[in-house]
Every structure is written in structure tokens, then in C-alpha cells.
């Protein structure tokens, strides 16, 4: 077996051009999806305090943002809705004139080539802040499925290119696939939040979307951070039910799960670089403790190395700029 001094690994690190030639993983624009938050109103551009650079946008300002996204060359956006009113059954999620439905129609009319993906869940729309219907003191799985599927259908009818169920109810991928197929939307892909953990990294998102549970927590339907094998069981079920892409969320503390899912299923795997991960980098960079650009790009290439094919990240617009600048 060849060893030192004949074998010198540093030979392939001697210059930037050599490093470029042997580099195994790279982050490109083709990897990125940019999450956006849309709300009712006119001229709304309200920064999320815990997520500097991220805004709650009305449809008119969302169109301005989408123009920048398209110009930057980012392939797609993931749309989250913030309703005017909430109720026990999350009716704003599946209303044909709901905020996401209106936003999708406006986006596809103005930017037909931009990939518009919609988050499918009830949590932003329910008065209790949970992702499904409440029966007694429990988030009821089966009675929630019809409304989740109806939400996905309303998004497809509005023109969404892809739907992304994030509720973590058992059987929701099958319910959505059946609902879409029956309505003639057989070509709409499902990007399922398959391994979604009950994580402490979601805090800033809940401020942005106003989706903090009003009682209890989401540990009865989101996954225990201690579990890995369970993620494979969840992912297998979603793929068997018709998921076309699968998400691991969060990404940073779960790169092992990204790798295991990719190795096990060889399907398109999406890493969700969540709000808490974004906020920590922004806060540390503001204090001068880290180089924001270097930390972000290193983190994203880590997701790629772990096995991610696609990265949902709030850093997307910054990354697009950095890549353009070389």
C-alpha cells in the first residue's frame, strides 16, 4: 500500500486551480430555493426582527422580490402565507381566494418560468397554531387529511408548480396525491417534509409566520431529534405514497439524516436550512464573530457533501450574489 513520502495528499491542494479541478462538491444557483412570506395588504415590506433581510411581503412587493429572484437566476421560491384572520379549522389555507392562492396566480401570470412551490399546512391559519384539527386536546390525524389535501388542490388550481406538505400527519402524501390526480393534476410533484423534527431551530420562522402553538407543542407529530431510523421509516412511507422529493428539516444538525436518506433511497433529497440556522449566522456576523459569506457557503457545501440535491435557504439571494461575484 502506497504511503508517505510517495503519497502526498497536499499535492492536490497546492493552488486554487488544482483545488477547483478536484473539488468534489460545489454549491450552484441550480441548488437553491428561496422561501418567502406573503400577507394581505398593499406596499407591505415588514422585516422579521429575528431574521434580518427577510420580510413579510404583500403581493405587490412579493412580485418585486420575485423579479429579483428571477434576475438572480434562482430556479424557484417556496411560498408561505400569512392570513388576515385565523379560525379553528384553518379555512384560510384552502380558501380559493386565500393569500397563497392569490399570490400564486399573480406570480405565475408575471413570472411563468419561475418555479412556484407552496407550503401545505394549516398551522399559519389555525387559531390554535397547530398543523391539524383539534379533537379534544389532541391534534387529530385522520380528520386533518381532507383539509390538507384540499389545501394542496387549491394551490394547484391557482397555478402552483409543486406542493410541499409540512404538517407531518400520517397518510397526507397519499391523500394529496389522490386529490390531485382525481382533479387532473397528475403532473404536479409533491415535495414532502418527510423527516421533519420537533426542533428548537424553528423559533424565528414562527415569528415570521405567526404560527406558534397556543397550547402544548408539536412533539406528537413532528419527530424526536434523538431518532434516526424513524426518519427512514417516515421517508419510505412518503415515497410509497407518491412523494417525488423528500425534505430533511432542519439541515444543520441533521446532516447524518440527509446522508442516510440519500444512501437508502437514491431519490431527490432537499435540505431545509431553517430560520434558526439563518438567524444564528446573521447575529454572529453582525457582531463580527464570523465571516458570513464563508460560513454560509461552507455550511451549504456541507449539505451537498451529505447528499442533498436541493437546498431551501433564506441565504439564497446572498448566495446568488456571492456566486456571481466569484
From TrEMBL:
5-aminolevulinate 1 binds at residues 206, 218. Signal peptide: none annotated. The keyword Phosphoprotein does not apply. 5-aminolevulinate 2 binds at residues 275, 314. One of its GO terms (biological process) is heme biosynthetic process. Its EC number is 4.2.1.24. Mg(2+) binds at residue 234. Keywords: Heme biosynthesis, Lyase, Magnesium, Metal-binding, Porphyrin biosynthesis, Zinc. It catalyses: 2 5-aminolevulinate = porphobilinogen + 2 H2O + H(+). Zn(2+) binds at residues 121, 123, 131. GO terms for cellular component: cytosol. The active site is at 196 (schiff-base intermediate with substrate), 249 (schiff-base intermediate with substrate). InterPro entries: ALAD, ALAD_AS, Aldolase_TIM. Its cofactor is Zn(2+). GO terms for molecular function: porphobilinogen synthase activity; zinc ion binding. Belongs to the ALAD family. Catalyzes an early step in the biosynthesis of tetrapyrroles. Binds two molecules of 5-aminolevulinate per subunit, each at a distinct site, and catalyzes their condensation to form porphobilinogen. Homooctamer. This is Delta-aminolevulinic acid dehydratase. It comes from Desulforamulus aquiferis.
Amino acid at each position: 500500500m502506497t504511503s508517505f513520502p510517495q503519497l502526498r495528499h497536499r499535492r492536490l491542494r497546492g493552488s486554487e486551480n488544482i483545488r477547483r479541478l478536484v473539488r468534489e462538491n460545489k454549491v450552484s444557483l441550480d441548488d437553491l430555493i428561496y422561501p418567502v412570506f406573503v400577507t394581505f395588504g398593499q406596499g407591505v415590506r415588514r422585516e422579521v426582527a429575528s431574521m434580518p433581510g427577510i420580510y413579510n411581503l404583500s403581493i405587490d412587493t412579493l412580485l418585486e422580490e420575485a423579479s429579483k429572484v428571477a434576475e438572480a437566476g434562482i430556479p424557484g421560491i417556496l411560498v408561505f402565507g400569512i392570513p388576515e384572520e385565523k379560525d379553528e379549522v384553518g379555512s384560510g389555507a384552502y380558501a380559493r381566494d386565500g393569500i397563497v392562492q392569490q399570490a400564486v396566480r399573480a406570480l405565475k401570470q408575471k413570472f411563468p418560468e419561475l418555479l412556484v412551490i407552496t407550503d401545505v399546512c394549516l398551522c399559519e391559519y389555525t387559531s390554535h397554531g397547530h398543523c391539524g384539527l383539534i379533537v379534544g386536546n389532541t391534534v387529530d390525524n385522520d380528520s386533518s387529511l381532507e383539509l390538507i389535501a384540499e389545501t394542496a388542490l387549491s394551490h394547484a388550481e391557482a397555478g402552483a408548480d409543486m406542493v410541499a406538505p409540512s404538517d407531518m400527519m400520517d397518510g397526507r402524501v397519499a391523500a394529496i396525491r389522490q386529490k390531485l390526480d382525481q382533479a387532473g393534476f397528475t403532473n404536479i410533484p409533491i415535495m414532502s417534509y418527510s423527516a421533519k423534527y420537533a426542533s428548537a431551530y424553528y423559533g424565528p420562522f414562527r415569528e415570521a409566520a405567526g404560527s406558534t402553538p397556543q397550547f402544548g407543542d408539536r412533539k406528537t407529530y413532528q419527530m424526536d431529534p434523538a431518532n434516526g431510523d424513524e426518519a427512514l421509516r417516515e421517508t419510505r412511507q412518503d415515497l410509497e405514497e407518491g412523494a417525488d422529493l423528500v425534505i430533511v428539516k432542519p439541515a444543520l444538525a441533521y446532516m447524518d439524516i440527509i446522508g442516510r436518506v440519500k444512501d437508502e433511497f437514491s431519490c431527490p433529497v432537499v435540505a431545509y436550512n431553517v430560520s434558526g440556522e439563518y438567524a444564528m449566522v446573521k447575529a454572529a456576523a453582525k457582531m463580527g464573530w464570523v465571516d458570513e459569506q464563508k460560513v454560509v457557503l461552507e455550511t451549504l457545501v456541507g449539505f451537498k457533501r451529505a447528499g442533498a440535491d436541493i437546498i431551501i435557504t433564506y441565504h439564497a439571494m446572498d448566495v446568488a450574489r456571492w456566486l456571481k461575484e466569484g
